[in-house]
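Progress narrative, Year 2. Work on Divalent metal cation transporter MntH from Aphanomyces euteiches advanced from sequence curation to structure prediction during this period.
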Amino acid sequence: MRGHDMQGAELSPLTTPVKAQESSGASSLPYYNVDAAGATTGRSWIKQLLPALGSAFVASVAYVDPGNFATNIQAGSNYGFTLLWVILMANLMAMLFQTLSAKLGIATGKNLPEVIAEQFPPWLVYIMWFVAEVAAIATDVAEFIGAAIAFKLLFSITLAWGAIITAVMTLGLLYVHQSRVHIFEVIIFVLVSVIVVSYIVETAMQPSIDWNQVAKHTFVPQFVDTNSIVLSVGIVGATVMPHVIYLHSALTQSRFVVSEDGDVIFPPLRYEVVGIVIALGIAGLVNMSMLIMAASTFNTSGHTDINSIENAYLTLEPLLGKAASYVFAIGLLASGISSSAVGTLAGQVIMGGFVKFHINVWIRRVVTLVPSMAIIFSGADPTQALVISQVVLSFCIPFALVPLAMFASREDIMGKWKSSGLMQGITAMLCLIIISLNFYLILAAICGWN
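Result:
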C-alpha cells in the first residue's frame, strides 16, 4: 500500500485505513472525508482549506465560551492590562496542542481517547476517562450558565427560564449536527462571527485605550498577587480546553482515504495548521478584547471589583451606554449556545474513545444538564461557578496534554508525522508550565499565600 500526500508523510503504524467516502464512525460523530480524487495537488487550495477551517472553527468555539467572559472580565477589572500576556501565552499553547491533536487524528485514523485506551493500562484509562468527564462537565457548566445569563440580561427573564430556552436551543443545534454536519459548521461560524463583531463594536465604543500599556502587558509577564495567579490559571483553563483537544482529533481522524487502487491519500497538514492559526488567532484576539474592554471601562474608572458577568452588564450601561451592554449580552449568548453544543459532541468522543461505550447524544445532553440546572436552581452565584469551572478545567488539562505530547513524539504511533526534537522539547516545557501553575495554586491555597 502506497502513502501519498504533498508532505511525504507515511501511514502511521496505528492507522486503520478507510475507503474513500467511508467514515470509521468510531466516536459516533459524522466526519468530513476528503475524496480520493480531490485530495491531490490538482485540488484548489480553497477546497483543501475549507474542511480544516470547519473543524478549526468548531474547536475555536471553546476558546470564546462564557468561561472566558468571566475570567477575562475579572482579570481586566481587577488588574487592568496586567494579565494580557497570559492570554497570548495560552492562545499560542492552544494553537500548538490543537495542531498536534489534528495531526494525531489524521496520522492514526483514531482520536486521542482511542489511542490512550490502546496504549495505557486499563486502570489508568479509567482514571483518565473520569478526569475527562469531569472536564466535560465543568465545561458544560460554564457554557450553559453563560447562555442562561445572557437570556436573562437580554430579555429580563429569570435565570431558570433562560436555562430552559438554552436547553431547547442546544438540542436544536445537536439535531442539525446529526442530520447536516456542514450546516452545523456554518451555524457555528455565524455564531463565532457574532462574538467577534460584538467585541469589535465593544472595543470601538471605548472612549480611550492606552495602547502603550496594552502592548507592554501583552509581552511582559507579571503577577501582582496570589489572586492574579489564580485568575491566570483560570485564563489558561478557559483557553487551553481539554475537551476540544480530544474532539479535534475526532474531527480529523477520517481525513485520509484509501483510493480504489490501494493508495493512501493524506490531506496536506499545512491546511490544518493554517485553519487552526486563523480560527484560534481570531479567538485569541476576542479574548484580549474582552480583557482590554474590562480594563479600559472598569479598572480605569475605579470599578475594580467587577466579579460577575451580570455586574459587568449593569456597569457597562452607565459608562458606555445601553447599546454597549446589549452588544455584550449578544456576544455572551452566541458564545454560550455554540459552545454548549460543541461540548456535548466532545463528550461523545470522550466516552466512546476511552471506554468504547456509546449512549444516545440526546440522553447525554439531558444528563449533562443536571449540574448546570442544579447550580441555577440552588441560587448559587453563577459567575463564581463559571470561574471555578475554569480552574477545574486547568487541573484537567495535563491529562489531555501529556499523553498527546507523548504520542506525538513516538514514531511507532505517528510514523513520519511524529514531532521533531525541538517540538518535543517545546511541548514538554509547556506541559511543565501548566503543571507548575497548578501546583503553585494548590500550595497557595494550603499555605494562605497572599
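The domain at 63-447 is CATH 1.20.1740.10 (Amino acid/polyamine transporter I). Residues 237 and 390 are 5 Å apart (CA to CA).
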